[in-house]
Write a structure and sequence with these properties.
The complex is a heterodimer of chains A (about 220) and B (about 250). In chain A, the strands form four sheets. Chain A has a five-stranded mixed barrel. Chain A has four helices and 15 strands. The C terminus of chain A is likely disordered. In chain A, helix 2 runs parallel beside helix 4 and helix 3 packs antiparallel against helix 4. Chain A is an alpha+beta fold. The radius of gyration of chain A is 19 Å and the shape is flat. The C terminus of chain B is likely disordered. In chain B, the strands form three sheets. Chain B has a five-stranded mixed sheet. A four-stranded antiparallel sheet of chain B has the order 9-8-10-11, with helices on both faces. The longest helix of chain B is centred in the last third of the chain and has 33 residues. In chain B, about 30% of the residues lie in helices and about 30% in strands. Chain B is an alpha+beta fold. Chain B has four helices and eleven strands, in the order ββββββαβαββαββα. The termini of chain B are far apart. Classes of the chains: A alpha+beta (about 220), B alpha+beta (about 250). At the A-B interface, helix 3 of A face strand 5 and helix 4 of B.
C-alpha cells in the first residue's frame, strides 16, 4: 500500500534519517511531498545538491580567468578549474562532469568535463532520476533499445538524448518522471514504447529547453 | 444624531448566515503557474490569492547571503482592483510591507533553511480579490506553493482568523465583521508541533478569550489543512501533470 505524505506528517515512529525527512522528538517526519510504500519513503519533489562522485550534466554559465562556472540545475553553481583543462569551452555549451568535491556550503568542484555534441537535453526533477535509470540500468537500456538513442542520465535531473528518435526518447523520459510514483512503471513504459515504435513515428514534436549544440542557422 | 448600529449577529447566527465557528467555502489549487517552481491559488470565500515560490536560488545582492541558511523573501501585495479601498498607488504600502515581514517570519520557522546555505527563497503572494483575512489566506496558499516547489519544511502551515463581535467569538471573519467587530486575531499555526507562528491582534481581548481563540484557531486550522492536503494530492495523483512545466 502506498500513502501520500505531506511535510510534517509522521512517517516512522522511530528516528530514521534519509532524504526528505527530519527527526523530532524520536520520530521521523517527512519534510517534502513523498509517497510511503510498505518498506520505504520516496520523495516526490526535491532539489539537487551536489554530491561527490556524481555524474552530472552542466551548462557553462560564465568564463573566468581561473575556469568556468557551470550551471548544475541546482541552487548551487559548480566550478570547473581551468588548471588541468585541455580544451576551452564557450558559454552555453553542454558538458558532462563529475563532482570531485562538495563542501559544507555546497560549492562543487568539477572534473572530467566532456563536451556533449548534438542531441538534446531535458530537465526533470532530480528525485526521479533513479526511476529513469532503473535497477541495474534496466530502464535506460529499455529506452535505448526501443528508440535507438544514446541516453546519458545526469544525477542532477538532466537527461541527454542523442540519436534518431529523440522525440520518443524524450516523451518516454517525461512519462517516467510524471508517473514514477505510480504502480507498474516498467510495464507501462514498455507498452508505450511498443505502441509508439509500431506506429512508426511520434505524432507530437516536443520542444526541449536546451539544444546541446546550436545548429548552424542559429549561430 | 447617532447612526443606527448594524447588528452582526442575528438570531444566534452571523449576518452572513454562518455559525460562529463555520469557515467560508475554501478551495486550494496547487501548481497554477507553470514558470514558478511552486505555486498555489486559494479561493477562500470572496478572497482570491495567488502564491508563487521561486528558489532556492543564488542570492542577489550577494552580500545578503547567509552561509548558514537560506534567506527568505516574502512579498505580499494587493492588486489595485482587489478591494473596495484604494490600493492603486505603485509599490507596496506600509501595510503590505508589514504583512510581507510577518509572513517571512512564519516561513523562517517552517522551512528547513539550514539545508540550503547561501541561497534565497522568494515567496510572492498576490491578492487578487479581498474580503477580510487575506494575510492568513495568503500564507496558507504560500505554504502549499512551498510544498509544491519541493522545499523541505517542518510542517505545512495554515491559519484562520478569529475575532469577537458583539461579545461572541467567531472564526474566519469577513471584511464586514473585521471592520465592525470588536477584536480580531489572525493566527497561523503548525499543527504538528502545536506552535503559533503568527499572532497579531486588533482590539482588546481578555486572557480567557485568548485561550478560547487559540482553541478555535487550531480547530479551524485542521479543516484548512485537509483542504491543502487535498489540493496537493490532486496535483500529484489525480491529474499527474506536474511536469507540464517542461512542455
Amino acid at each position: 500500500m502506498k500513502d501520500f505524505i505531506v511535510p510534517g506528517e509522521v512517517v516512522y515512529d522511530q528516528p530514521r534519517r534519509f532524504d526528505g525527512s527530519f527527526v523530532d522528538r524520536e520520530k521521523t517526519f517527512a519534510s517534502v511531498l513523498s509517497v510511503k510504500y510498505d518498506d520505504r519513503v520516496v520523495a516526490l519533489k526535491g532539489l539537487y545538491t551536489p554530491v561527490v562522485s556524481d555524474y552530472v550534466i552542466g551548462i557553462i554559465k560564465h568564463e573566468l580567468f581561473s575556469g568556468y562556472k557551470v550551471d548544475l540545475n541546482s541552487p548551487y553553481i559548480g566550478m570547473l578549474s581551468s588548471r588541468d583543462l585541455r580544451e576551452r569551452f564557450e558559454v552555453g555549451q553542454v558538458i558532462s562532469v563529475v563532482i570531485r568535491m562538495a563542501d559544507e556550503v555546497k560549492e562543487a568542484e568539477l572534473v572530467e568535463p566532456r563536451r556533449l555534441w548534438g542531441g538534446r537535453v531535458i530537465e526533470i526533477p532530480a528525485v526521479k532520476i533513479p526511476r529513469v535509470i532503473g535497477r541495474n540500468n534496466s530502464m535506460v537500456s529499455l529506452l535505448e533499445q526501443y528508440t535507438g538513442c544514446r541516453i546519458f542520465v545526469g544525477k542532477n535531473g538532466r537527461v541527454y538524448v542523442k540519436g534518431d528518435n529523440t522525440s520518443l526518447a524524450i516523451e518516454s523520459v517525461m512519462k517516467i518522471a510524471r508517473e514514477a510514483h505510480m504502480h507498474g512503471l516498467t510495464d507501462r513504459i514498455k507498452s508505450f514504447l511498443e505502441d509508439e515504435t509500431k506506429a512508426g513515428h511520434l505524432a507530437s514534436e516536443i520542444g526541449s529547453p536546451f539544444q546541446a549544440s546550436p545548429s548552424p542557422e542559429t549561430k | 444624531m447617532e447612526k443606527e448600529k448594524k447588528k452582526l449577529i442575528v438570531d444566534g447566527k452571523r449576518v452572513n448566515g454562518r455559525g460562529f465557528d463555520d469557515l467560508r467555502p475554501l478551495k486550494v489549487t496547487a501548481g497554477v503557474l507553470k514558470r514558478a517552481d511552486g505555486s498555489a491559488m486559494i479561493e477562500w470565500g470572496r478572497n482570491k490569492v495567488l502564491a508563487a515560490v521561486y528558489g532556492p536560488r543564488e542570492v542577489f545582492p550577494k552580500h545578503l547571503s547567509d552561509v548558514k541558511k537560506a534567506i527568505i523573501n516574502c512579498r505580499y501585495s494587493m492588486a489595485p482592483f482587489s478591494g473596495m479601498e484604494e490600493h492603486g498607488r505603485s509599490g507596496p504600502n506600509r501595510r503590505a510591507i508589514e504583512i510581507g515581514k510577518v509572513a517571512k517570519h512564519v516561513f523562517e520557522n517552517a522551512v528547513l533553511t539550514h539545508q540550503f546555505p547561501k541561497t534565497q527563497i522568494d515567496i510572492s503572494m498576490e491578492v487578487l480579490q479581498s474580503d477580510g483575512g487575506t494575510r492568513v489566506a495568503a500564507i496558507t496558499a504560500a505554504s502549499v506553493a512551498l510544498a509544491d516547489a519541493g522545499i523541505p519544511m517542518r510542517d505545512l502551515v495554515q491559519g484562520v482568523s478569529i475575532g469577537r463581535v458583539e461579545g461572541q467569538l467567531i472564526v474566519d471573519l469577513d471584511k464586514y465583521e473585521d471592520n465592525l467587530g470588536e477584536a480580531d486575531v489572525p493566527l497561523i499555526v503548525s499543527l504538528r508541533s502545536k506552535e503559533v507562528l503568527l499572532f497579531q491582534q486588533d482590539g482588546r481581548i481578555s486572557r480567557e478569550e485568548l485561550q478560547k481563540m487559540f482553541e478555535l484557531g487550531f480547530k479551524g486550522a485542521e479543516l484548512v489543512r485537509d483542504v491543502q492536503v487535498q489540493a496537493l494530492r490532486q496535483r500529484y495523483f489525480e491529474t499527474g501533470d506536474e511536469l507540464n512545466n517542461h512542455g
